[in-house]
Write a structure and sequence with these properties.
The complex is a heterodimer of chains A (289) and B (410).
Chain A lengths: L1 H34 L16 H8 L1 H33 L5 H13 L2 H23 L15 H26 L3 H9 L4 H12 L1 H16 L3 H6 L11 H11 L3 H28 L5
Helix pairs in contact in A: 2-12, 3-6, 3-9, 4-6, 6-9, 9-12, 11-12
Chain B lengths: L1 H25 L10 E6 L6 H14 L3 E6 L4 H10 L6 E4 L3 H8 L17 H11 L7 E13 H7 L7 H13 L5 E2 L9 H12 L2 H8 L4 H15 L12 H9 L5 E5 L3 H7 L5 E4 L10 E11 L6 H11 L2 H10 L3 E2 L15 H6 L2 E2 L12 H9 L4 H16 L1
Helix pairs in contact in B: 4-5, 8-10, 10-17, 11-12, 16-17
The chains are: A mainly alpha (289), B alpha/beta (410).
């Protein structure tokens, strides 16, 4: 009797969220998969065409190009973001002055919209830095790095890392807080240097946080969209066209809704596979306390 | 227990999905209060909302019994397309005469206007342009106002250096060379934003290959490789004369810089005059047609606003009345006072001094359409040219254009 009543209460709590989630997430997802087997343009009539879209995805040079850029960007950014945010977290975890205020300041980028951040950085890259370069006669800085096919992706990495580091710092900080102080005392008594302490005490103990940070950062960077829209719009040429941007642009305004749905389905499986592999691999080297 | 809930959940969702169609269908037009008729006017230009509101007010005063509700939404193409798919068509709508117009016209939801008496006052060239876009014998919209590409030039700089307006491609290149010898940047180019390559590209392409090219292309008698080599060379030949950071500049930066007198010329459309004069109201600016070839050159112009009606609207007579009102020369002229465009209707003229050099071309009907309106949907010609100008080879460009055309026209 008691049990049944409880189940009902819990169901009442879960159900609204479930309906919303199904209606606005799962249902459109299923629709997208469905349309990837048709020649739907986003409106009007359509026919089933089997797996033709999936074959065309692999033959399309623009899609391959966007995979190339996205992976280059995601791998470099993931590595940089983890190095930088772990370093900042270690610094903020020590008892420097104002460390609580500093924590707040370092979290700021996370609460700003990427589009706003992107537009500010666009101004810095295309107006501010070139002006400095011109007035000091530094050739390398005189032109906007957004205007070159070779360097535009670096600008996106800079903005991506600047913005994403904030959240990863917080995650690392909460990881560092879980390490008992006596471990440092014990290792200190054994004569371990600061580096040895980090290498053999700190890093192994925050390994679960390292795992989650690597997976989250990689997943977020693979889905990069706002940064590119704000900074380059995918240009110059197609140098910074990310997969998400290509799906959006060609799918909605390019009249290739079905082809890009197929691309999105494939990409969904790519991201899931990468995340699972990452978790498997990184969890192996975590230690249990 | 859980199963029961899941079934219920599904039922709710299915009902919700069905219910959607009912509510969206008849909602807009029936006001129900006796003989007062309400028309929906779907209007895509956010910068012209006030002008149309003023016109609506005048119309309502002349026609008691008809209320017109203007509906302006951002990203109007997408909104219109999704409403088309639900068969929820506005009574009267404006559409930009681009690729999207062709799609809407072919969907078979617009009223056929081919035999309408109003066409007598409409410039024939623009009628043909819209028919070519929809690829139909029938006409599905009235052209209302049209835009133009051209070379915006700084009159003060031209006077100071004693320069003359060029009329052939060779004169244009010589002019660029002459300005380059002075301290002034001859040309503002903003190819950091890909679409800004379109104004010069469209002018050169349309003047070089005319409109028959697209018929020949469709028939398989010609290719981009055969025709676009010369066009690509001309676009590249102008690049060294743009001394600003071409690929670091976007459209807004270009407008501001040109407004501040940082370049003698700027290849854009007449739509750029608005933001430029807003940035610097004192700028002495004029527009001349870009001389794309050494023969006689036409101005490249497209339908900016076309007016269409629903095929099976609830109030066809009232809608017709409103469209007739919008196309009356005095009302078009009222619209042109604030919008720097030209009339597609005879009897209405653009009087803005900055645009006077273009008006004779419109009077003579010496106009060609934008080439990029006739490529297949999704044909990213601007991105391909941006790529090419950043150091790609002509051969790569031409073969990419041909393969993209083949892929997208299937």
């Amino acid at each position: 009797m008691m049990d049944k009543k409880n189940t009902r209460v819990y169901l009442m709590m879960v159900l609204p969220a479930l309906i919303l989630f199904f209606g606005f997430h799962t249902f459109p997802l299923i629709q997208g998969v469905f349309y990837s087997f048709t020649d739907y343009r986003g409106y009007g009539d359509w026919n089933f065409i089997g797996i033709e879209n999936y074959i065309n995805v692999f033959k399309d040079p623009r899609i391959l190009n966007s995979y190339q850029f996205t992976f280059k960007f995601a791998i470099v950014s993931t590595i940089l973001v983890n190095i930088i945010s772990l370093t900042i977290a270690l610094g903020l975890n020590s008892k420097v002055k104002f460390h609580k205020t500093l924590r707040g300041i370092y979290f700021m980028p996370n609460i700003l919209s990427i589009l706003i951040v992107g537009f500010v950085f666009k101004f810095i890259f295309s107006v501010f830095i070139p002006e400095i370069g011109q007035s000091f006669g530094i050739e390398g800085l005189a032109k906007s790095i957004l205007g070159s096919k070779d360097s535009a992706w670096i600008a996106i990495v800079i903005v991506g890392v600047w913005q994403a580091a904030a959240l990863n710092v917080i995650l690392y900080l909460s990881g560092l807080a879980t390490i008992p102080e006596d471990l440092y005392e014990a290792s200190g008594l054994d004569g371990a240097s600061k580096w040895q302490q980090f290498r053999h005490v700190t890093f192994p103990l925050i390994a679960p946080f390292f795992t989650i940070n690597m997976v989250l950062a990689m997943k977020n960077f693979l889905m990069v969209f706002d940064h590119v829209v704000a900074l380059t719009g995918g240009g110059p040429g197609r140098a910074t066209q990310s997969i998400s941007l290509l799906i959006y642009e060609d799918g909605f305004s390019g009249g290739q809704f079905a082809l890009q749905s197929a691309n999105a389905v494939i990409y969904f499986f790519v991201i899931v596979t990468i995340s699972v592999i990452q978790i498997r691999f990184l969890q192996k080297r975590e230690v249990q306390m | 227990m859980l199963k029961g809930f899941m079934v219920m959940l599904l039922a709710v969702l299915v009902l919700a999905a069905c219910g959607n169609d009912d509510t969206s269908d008849g909602g807009s037009s029936d006001s129900g209060s006796g003989d007062q008729v309400e028309l929906e006017f779907f209007q895509f230009k956010s910068e012209a909302v006030n002008e149309f509101d003023a016109l609506i007010e005048k119309f309502e005063a002349e026609n008691p019994g008809i209320t017109v509700v203007q509906n302006n939404s951002p990203d109007s193409d997408t909104v219109l397309f999704s409403r088309l798919s639900q068969n929820d068509i506005p009574d009267v709508m404006t559409i930009n005469g681009g690729v999207a117009f062709g799609e809407v016209a072919r969907a078979g939801v617009l009223k056929d206007l081919s035999d309408d008496a109003l066409l007598d006052t409409v410039t024939d060239e623009y009628e043909d342009m819209l028919k070519r876009l929809s690829r139909t014998e029938e006409l599905y919209a009235f052209p209302h106002s049209v835009n133009a590409n051209g070379v915006l030039y700084n009159k003060t700089i031209f006077n100071d250096l004693g320069l003359e307006i060029p009329t052939t491609w060779d004169e244009f290149m010589a002019l660029l060379e002459e300005i380059k010898a002075s301290e002034v940047n001859p040309l503002m180019s903003t190819y950091g934003e890909a679409w800004t390559v379109l104004p010069p590209l469209n002018t050169i392409a349309s003047n070089t290959h005319g409109m028959t090219f697209f018929d020949e292309l469709e028939a398989g008698n010609t290719s981009f490789t055969e025709v676009y080599g010369e066009i690509a060379e001309k676009i590249k030949a102008m690049l060294p004369y743009a001394e600003n950071d071409v690929f670091g500049y976007d459209y807004n930066m270009g407008n501001t810089a040109f407004a501040n007198g940082e370049a003698a010329m700027y290849m854009q459309g007449v739509w750029a005059l608005g933001p430029i004069l807003e940035a610097n109201p004192d700028l002495e600016v004029g527009v001349f047609p870009m001389p794309a070839t050494n023969d006689s050159n036409s101005i490249v112009s497209g339908v900016d606003v076309a007016i269409a009606m629903a095929k099976d609207g609830d109030h066809p007579e009232e809608a017709q009345k409103f469209v007739e009102f919008l196309l009356q020369p005095e009302n078009v002229e009222f619209y042109l006072e604030t919008q720097r465009m030209f009339a597609a209707v005879e009897g209405a003229e653009q009087t803005d001094p900055a645009l006077q050099e273009l008006q004779p071309y419109f009077d003579a009907g010496d106009v060609l359409p934008f080439s990029d309106h006739y490529y297949p949907q999704g044909f990213a010609v601007d991105v391909m040219f941006q790529d090419y100008l950043l150091g790609g080879s002509v051969d790569d460009l031409l073969s990419e254009m041909d393969s993209e055309y083949e892929r997208l026209s299937n």
